Amino acid sequence: MITEQTIPIPKTELAPSDAAVIAKGALVNFLGTMAKILKSILFIILTRLFGPEIFGLYGLAWSIIDLTSKVGHFALDKSIIHFLPRYHGDGDTNAIYVLLSRAFGVGLIMGFLTGIGAFLSAPLLEAQFQKTGMATMLQILAPVLPLMSLTMIILGVTRAHKIMKYDAYIKSIAEPLIMFGMSCVLYYMGWHVAGIAAGHAVALVGSVIFAGFVFSKFYSWRQCFQSLKDFRLWSPMTRFSLPVMGYEVMYLMMIRLDILMVGYFLSAMEVGIYLIATEIALSTKKVRQWFDPIFSPIVSELAYRQDTQRIGHNFAMVTRWILTINIAFLCGVFLIGEELLGLFGPEFGIGFLTMIILAVSHVVYSSMGSGDTILIMSGHPYINLVNTVIVVAVNFGLNVVLIPKFGMVGAAVGTLASFSLLTLIRGIEVYRLFRIHPFRWILIKPILSATVSFAIAYTTSFRLPDYDVLRMVVPPLLFMGCYGLGLWRMKLEDEDYLVLERLFARLRRKNAKKNAWRLSV
Questions:
Q1: By the 8 A CB rule, do 420 and 361 touch?
Q2: Going by C-beta distance under 8 Å and a sequence separation of 6 or more, which residues neighbour residue 12?
Q3: Do 73 and 57 share a structural domain?
Q4: pLDDT tens-digit map of 280-318
Q5: What's the CA dihedral at 157, 159, 161, 163 to 10 degrees?
Q6: What global pTM score does this model have?
Q7: 57 & 168 share domain
Q8: Contact of 218 with 161, CB cutoff 8 Å
């Protein structure tokens, strides 16, 4: 076990460099999330085109495929992130290629097995959920599960090198655009039910082609094939991946369980409304996704060096950054959420309260939830697995009781209770294992600033003319202005100034290059 007595390096010497690396990676992932706004816009058009019922069927089918894909890629991307930096640091090229060839081999085998299983079980699942048309969508998506495994493994390679941009290019830009284009084409060709699923399948094929090209920039495909002579199904890589895969399946089960159970108890149209409410609420969860891909390899390296103090410093810093941004997203969802739901159609307005409760649950989980990254990357994946199994069981019981009585709101309340419980359990475990926690008094700053700023923006919204455009633009802009000013007046931390300084320096360099180019022309 790592203890504070084994720490050789003070945090003040090395923490700023971590702040810069984490912030740079988070910025790239932020741009990817901004690109996902495009996905939300495309979903608005697709929902209007196919209708909430068909969109609900697709969402239910995709939830099952997404859950199955976690078994398919076997958390091999996490194994890559865990082992590759160590082999790279040791200069062991042979070990790197053996690792990659084993990852691709296991990923393809598991992808094919899960794909066959999903394809054959589609009619049974349709009968169980009593949703006509769901089997067709499942059988269209199931064959691409092996390709999804390859894509995730390759993205694990880029994350292990702390390069986040390819994840954004592939998952946030290329895939949604291809899906939207193909879905529209297929709809007008007469695929009014399965067109959206078929469009997504084509997009996943495009993603793996793009990912294969990206991989060739880092490593040789030929050497990967040559290293297959050392292929083993059971190795340190799969021993590490097994509990992580179990955790990821349980985690996604926790994330998707409410959708699946809403699909079981309620109509396809209500599933569609719940899915859109979830999609908007997930804007708060995506903030943590900016940081996790770059935070994971840093924690892995520091745990390998037993530098607990630096892990604790980064844990607190990342938690503060995530909470600061998450509060802004939550207030934005509350201010304009009703108008956003209205964009998908008038029937979606009934999902407003559900959306707010889900947004709060994701803020609680993502702001304080980086403890799972610390547990996994420090060699305690089984603890994470047990935590998630317990919470999934609790969530299932709450959904069985609450959804029949309260519908979509009941599912959202069950999610909030489950996420809060999981966050509390992980926080206690991380503290018991490493004597670190993310809580500092400076967390009061964003909470206080957000409270005052929200009160100003919310009060102002009642005085605006009754135009949807004004209500969607003015309150969030007013909130962001007051929130940013409040944070600035309460003074930023040293890491914040370092990140801002580097960001502005980078912008100045880009402007200087543009000016030099213009002068040369």
A1: yes
A2: none
A3: yes
A4: 887 766 677 667 766 766 777 787 787 888 888 888 888
A5: 120
A6: 0.78
A7: yes
A8: yes
